[in-house]
Amino acid sequence: MKERKFISNNINKLLVTEYIRRETDTAGFGGMEMKRTPFGTNITLSVNKPGLVIGRHGSKVQEITETLEKKYGVESPQIEVKEVDNPDLNPQVVARKIALSLEKGWSYRKAGNTSLRRIIDSGTRGVMIRIGGKISGERARSQKFMFGSIKYSGEPARSGMEVGFSAAKLKLGIIGVSVKMLRNDYRLPDDITVKLQNNVSAESVPMEENEKDGTESKEAQRNE
Questions:
Q1: Residue 32 CA to its chain's centroid (Å)
Q2: What residues contact 89, with CB distance under 8 A and at least 6 apart?
Q3: What is this structure's pTM?
Q4: If both were cysteines, with which of 31, 60, 91, 206 could 179 make a disulfide (CB 3.0 to 4.6 Å apart)?
Q5: CA angle 3-6-10, nearest 5°?
Q6: Does this chain's domain 2-83 share its CATH topology with 87-182?
Q7: How far is 202 from 224, CA to CA, in rounded Å?
Q8: pLDDT by residue (tens digit) across 112-166?
Q9: Any idea which fold 87-182 has?
Q10: Closest C-alpha to 148, from 93, 198, 200, 186
């Protein structure tokens, strides 16, 4: 019984995420966080253009709230819209921009390299852009654009990497765009900081200075 409830809740959450992504696609969907509280369900949306999600006098948010409550059974949904701090450091926004560029006729190399340069200029620690599909012929293949540190497994990959995905619809077929970024605020296990003491004791004086002082005192005694 618990297993069925767990599966049904995850399926419903996935359907809610897909619905909100479709409704906020033009505003630059950057992610969603959903938490259940005793007073209802808090949904936090991160978008590039909050005005398009809020709508005139809050009409768009009200429409989304009513749909979530009636169609998807979300209990007392409360939607909060936040603007993305830096769109070039949000993998979902970057993936959607690359997909739109491909739909406009850009080559996959131009779209990937242009986005990679913008991400590097924004100060990322690591990024991997993967474009897969019929990008240069009848046979499907993939191309990667990478920079910095990328984690593939373990706790750093689960907690430190952010993932975004989007699809470009072309005449030859669907081209998938996935973007992975290493969070700047995530501390890796091999990140080590060395703290120096303000007061330097005599024991911490380099050996060369001690030897130099000793030789000078011996020469002074000989001259006397």
A1: 12
A2: 119, 122, 123, 124, 181, 184
A3: 0.75
A4: 91
A5: 140
A6: no
A7: 28
A8: 999 999 999 998 999 999 999 998 888 899 999 999 889 998 888 888 999 999 9
A9: Ribosomal protein S3 C-terminal domain (3.30.1140)
A10: 186
Beta bridge partners of 147: 127
Q: Name the more confident of 218 and 58.
A: 58
pLDDT in tens, 40-71: 888 888 888 888 888 888 888 888 888 888 88
Residue ranges of the domains in the chain? 2-83, 87-182
Domain topology for 2-83 = GMP Synthetase; Chain A, domain 3 (3.30.300)
Q: Encode the chain in three state secondary structure.
A: CHHHHHHHHHHHHHHHHHHHHHHCCCCCEEEEEEEEECCEEEEEEEECCHHHHHCHHHHHHHHHHHHHHHCCCCCCEEEEEEECCCHHHCHHHHHHHHHHHHHCCCCHHHHHHHHHHHHHHCCCCEEEEEEEECCCCCCCEEEEEEEECCCCCHHHHHHHEEEEEEEEECCCCEEEEEEEEECCCCCCCCCCCCCCCCCCCHHHCCHHHHHHHHHHHHHHHHHC
- Structure token pair of residue 208: 């060369």
Q: Is 169 exposed, middle or buried (0-12, 13-18, 19+ CB in 10 A)?
A: exposed
Amino acid at 35: K
